[in-house]
Amino acid sequence: AAYDQAASVAPALPDGPREGGMRCARWGEPESARPRLEEAVRRGARDAETWHVLGLVRLRLGDFDAAEDAYRAGAASDPSRAESWLGLATVAMARGDARKALEAYDQVIARRPRFALAELGRAWALGKLGRTADASRALDRAEELGAPTANIARQRAALIAPAGGEAK
What we know:
Layout: H1 2-9, H2 15-26, H3 30-42, H4 48-60, H5 64-77, H6 83-95, H7 98-111, H8 116-128, H9 132-144, H10 149-160
């Protein structure tokens, strides 16, 4: 409420709706966060963190197109950061689009080369694209970087399972 009050006192500034939206998002209230963050963007908030959180909120609400738009804007606002690319990978995975997921995970790895969970994501995408040898190498790299053993085991099993069947 205090951030909403600040937003009404300074209607040209993005600070009030941005902070209010960020807090709502952190509290697990995406329905309340979305209009505040969108208002912050309308008022000129263009930082990568605002875009990333807006993308996450939209994703949680099931609006994949709008989430993708926010993540793309976040990636453009600060090309050195990996967070929005990770969001784009998540949207692609939710849609089952392995090609786009791989492209986004490659961008994450370019920015954070030792990010084990991005290697797991790459392995998933590569496996879905039928590139099992590349997927296996990505899993090896994820394991080397300390990715969770159970996740690696599940993905390895999926790579050796016959199409539509269980691993043997």
